[in-house]
Design a protein that fits this description.
five-stranded antiparallel β-sheet; 4 helices; extended; alpha+beta
Length: 190
């Protein structure tokens, strides 16, 4: 079976559903953004809630579009690529189960420090607005705080990237890493 159907032909094309077999596995997904230049899909089966997409710059080919049949073929290829990446991660489930809990603790520590830093920024801004510190003193105070926030955000990114790079020999895209981390957060919050 290789079908591409639209839920309601009167609705916007952003509600396309895709269903096809790949290596004897039924893959289902939905297109939630489909414009001439952008395509975004979400897998609904066999894995659920994972998204990916494409953007085609105008200058690359002004005549091409994701609104035609070619767009549906791109959507299928995105689902296949996403399926293959998720299968790789599924094959590493035991390792992920061992590595994720300490990573989660580190991430939570970094998120706590980021939140504290953001609260310090608010306090400093209030001091400046009330005239306790000058704008120059304010800038001197917040510059290292903003740098700390960026450094901590990078540390979180690097931890997550390292987890996936150490486990797989394939590149796991940034968007999938984000969705997979949300999946793991949900799995381990139970």
């Amino acid at each position: 079976m290789n079908s591409i159907s639209q839920l309601n032909s009167n609705e916007d094309q952003s509600v396309d559903t895709i269903e096809f077999y790949f290596n004897e596995v039924l893959i289902r997904g939905k297109i939630f953004i489909r414009t001439k230049r952008d395509l975004a899909i979400e897998m609904t089966s066999p894995y659920k809630g994972f998204k990916t997409g494409l953007h085609k710059p105008y200058f690359s080919d002004p005549r091409s579009s994701y609104l035609d049949y070619e767009g549906l073929e791109y959507a299928k290829s995105l689902l296949i690529e996403l399926y293959n990446q998720l299968r790789v991660l599924e094959g590493k489930a035991i390792e992920i189960d061992q590595l994720y809990p300490p990573l989660k603790i580190k991430r939570e520590e970094f998120h706590t420090k980021i939140q504290q830093s953001k609260e310090a920024l608010i306090e400093e801004k209030l001091k400046m607005k009330s005239g306790i510190v000058s704008p120059i003193e304010y800038q001197r105070t917040i510059t290292p705080i903003n740098k700390l926030i960026k450094d901590l955000e990078y540390e979180i990114f690097a931890l997550e990237k390292q987890l996936f790079e150490n486990l797989t020999e394939t590149i796991i895209p940034y968007s999938l890493r984000g969705d997979y981390m949300k999946y793991l957060d949900g799995k381990y919050s139970k």
